[in-house]
Design goal:
Helix content is 46%, strand content 17%. By secondary structure, it is of the alpha/beta class. The strands form 2 sheets. A 7-stranded mixed sheet has the order 9-8-7-6-10-11-12, sandwiched between helices. Strands 1-2-4-3-5 form a 5-stranded mixed sheet, with helices on both faces. Helix 1 runs parallel beside helix 3, helix 4 crosses helix 5 and helix 6 crosses helix 13.
Length: 411
């Protein structure tokens, strides 16, 4: 089975071939500019310290500073980080925002750390990568298992060395230069994306049913916002299981239940099913919003939906993608569908540089403009090139980075 990096690389190479890019330019764009592996030492509450591996991959900055999240997860690896740094490069170009691509993380299970240990981990990691980042060089953001508070600790640690500059990192608490609208950005952006497709196909919102695998921040915001404008949410899942009601769920009540009990499982008015069973639920739109590679070949065969909205990064493997394509399933790719987060990160960065604080309405309106333009562009390119939406998205992203490289004098 292809790794995530092989899949993203394959999509890039297919786009480069279709665009007839020069070999030297392809090689430059297929190679990360810098890969940093660091030692992260964390003093423990019980005495002594532990050492964790940390990474920051800076893939390409032809269009602007490197941009990408930092994740804390036991499965973090250089291959994974490299994959998502490449993906972020094409994503920021597709969104047409002036950033390049990067990614980082620490190989750790943050659930095993106390809050004090988590703060020391965050600050230690920032000290380790501080020399290679900066507001006009590389701007990290939150990702899996990292929060606004963690971003706040990191921004403060950077300030202790280089002086205060909130633009060094995004996704921060509002009180520390964060942006209104950031919390809902990924879910809201995904909704703008799928709603554009639904309207473009002449479909009715109230006839569309959504099943969402992963009821975390992104999945819950998508469910709540989609429900508010007429979509029906029929199934939701988290790491402990799933719930299903073909007549519809009230996502805010489900979220309240999850906050109270720790899971969506057991929600009154819905059937509790296994996490795996959500992939076979009857729905028109299926949303993988959990970790990468959640839809492999076996699960692809279960899915009944006609549209897959990739809210997570690389949720559909290459092999599963081929199965779904053969069945005529439309996939709104991660490079597009999950772009809301980086779009609002960009808007936060702009506010920090200008020392401004925008209203949430202004942020959301700007996000809608960005997502509508990107989605319309992908649909038009797919129609023109007779390509899938993923192929069209990569064609646009890779083409824009290549144009920037040539404009800088590299060809």
């Amino acid at each position: 089975m292809s790794s995530a990096f092989e899949a993203v690389t394959g999509s890039f190479e297919a786009a480069a071939e279709r665009l007839n890019l020069e070999l030297s330019l392809r090689e430059a764009m297929a190679t990360p500019t810098r890969e940093v592996t660091v030692q992260v030492r964390v003093p423990m509450d019980g005495g002594g310290f532990k050492v964790y591996k940390g990474y920051r991959v800076q893939y390409n900055n032809a269009r602007g500073p490197y941009k990408g999240g930092l994740r804390f997860h036991p499965n973090v690896s250089l291959d994974e980080i490299r994959c998502f740094a490449a993906l972020m490069t094409w994503k920021t170009a597709l969104m047409n925002i002036p950033f390049g691509g990067g990614k980082g993380g620490v190989q750790v299970d943050p659930k095993l750390l106390s809050e004090a240990e988590l703060e020391r981990l965050s600050r230690s990691f920032m000290r380790a990568i501080a020399e290679v980042i900066g507001p006009t060089v590389d701007v990290p953001a939150p990702d899996v298992n990292t929060t606004p508070q963690i971003m706040g600790w990191m921004a403060d640690e950077y300030a202790r060395r280089y002086g205060p500059n909130p633009a060094v990192i995004t996704g921060k608490p509002i009180a520390f230069g964060g942006s209104l609208g950031r919390d809902s950005a990924t879910g809201r952006g995904a909704l703008f994306c799928v709603d554009h497709l639904v309207r473009a196909r002449g479909l009715k919102r109230n006839e569309q049913t959504l099943a969402i695998d992963g009821y975390g921040n992104a999945g819950s915001w998508l469910a709540i916002l989609a429900h508010d404008i007429g979509y029906t949410i029929v199934a939701l899942s988290d790491s402990k299981g799933a719930i299903h009601n073909p007549k519809g769920l009230h996502p805010e009540k489900v979220l309240a239940h999850k906050h109270e009990t720790g899971s969506v499982v057991g929600f009154e008015g819905a059937d509790t099913i296994s996490g795996d069973d959500i992939f076979g639920v009857d729905c028109t739109v299926f949303v993988p919003a959990a970790l990468d590679e959640s839809i492999k070949e076996d699960r692809a065969k279960q899915i009944t939906a006609k549209i897959i909205l990739e809210e997570a990064n690389y949720p559909v493997t290459t092999e599963a993608d081929a199965i779904l394509a053969d069945r005529g399933v439309t996939i709104l790719p991660d490079i597009l569908a999950s772009g809301g987060g980086v779009a609002v990160s960009y808007l936060e960065w702009v506010q920090d540089l200008q020392r401004e604080a925008w209203t949430e309405e202004r942020v959301n309106a700007r996000l809608e403009d960005i997502m509508e333009a990107a989605t319309a562009g992908v649909l038009a390119r797919a129609d023109k090139e007779k390509a899938t939406l993923r192929e069209a998205a990569y064609l646009i992203g890779v083409e824009r980075v290549a144009e920037a490289e040539v404009a800088r004098g590299y060809r």
